[in-house]
Amino acid sequence: MTGSPAALDMSSLHSQRDETTSAETLRHYGRLVSGPNWRWRKAQRAVSRGHVSAHTEYGSEFWQIVDHLGGLPDGTHGTRRGDRLLDVAAAESIFHDPVLRLRVEARILARLPLDVVAARSDVAPHNVRDYCDIFFDVLDCLDSKSWLACHVIDGGNKSVSNLHNVVCRDSCWGGSAVCEHWLARIPYLDEECDLTTSRGREIKRLQLALKLYQLEREDWNHLNEIAVRLGGLLSRPSLTFVSLGHALGQRTAHQLGKFLPHEEDALQTVQIADDSHTEVGRIKLSA
């Protein structure tokens, strides 16, 4: 909860245009620009400026956040808050608790139903719904991979931790089993690993996944040098300079190797093997 800013002046901002921006349009562009916590950020900016646009339908969720921040004009509390009341304070407490926030967000990204997210995270179901409305508006965007990567996994959580981003990323792409695997082992990530045991090797793999993510974000140039000199971290051949013709030839051979076996009139199948094209078989056509 912030201090007590001056109430919003509802008439201080006038536009020359006649059309009104709908709440759904505002939501679309808000998420596109500001990410999943767009309502919270927009309400903060509105309270800070002291005015809002008279040509925008903000929605009851927005006005309840403004009310929580102390900026709703006197006499308008009942008319703008809508029928469903949000527990903004409870949602904000989740947002500022790194452990609880990770549990809730990772499970939502793993596409678990909200009641299951609430039960497993030990949070009231209505508080999870309120959290989504205020801080994590992603429920109908879970198939928008580029938006999730930009605003949730890599872009939106810069103020959180590498651990948060890695667990959210793997939960989003891997589903609930991967999510619960991570969450169950987070308390042990600072332990020394006994690599002679399966548990120790498992924890070490998670530690290395975190380290790789940190290198990718914070020291990409150094990681690129390692990849060039040692062939990458995934047992790939070391990078060498090739001509454009050579690169195109490799690409063509790779595609043909996948395409030709499925054609009835194919004459031969090719595959790429290191730096050359290798004929690996012929299909004889019937007369």
Please bin the fraction of helical residues. 40-55%
Q: How many strands appear in the DSSP assignment?
A: 2
Low-confidence stretches: 10-17, 241-245, 259-287
Strand content bin: under 5%
- What's the helix count? 14
Mean pLDDT: 74
Rg: 26 Å
**Overall shape:** elongated
Run of helices and strands: HHHHHHHHHHHHHHEE
The major β-sheet equals: 2 strands, antiparallel
Please supply descriptive tags for the structure shown above.
single chain; 287 residues; mainly alpha; 2 strands
Brief digest:
Helices cover 54% and strands 5% of the residues.
Question: If you had to describe this structure to a student in words, what would you say it looks like?
Answer:
With 287 residues, the chain is mainly alpha-helical. The protein folds into 3 domains: 23-85, no CATH class; 91-229, no CATH class; 244-282, no CATH class. The protein has 14 helices and 2 strands, in the order ααααααααααααααββ. Strands 1-2 form a two-stranded antiparallel ribbon. Helix 7 (114-121) packs across helix 8. The longest helix is centred in the last third of the chain and has 21 residues, at 198-218. Residues 1-24 are annotated as: Disordered.
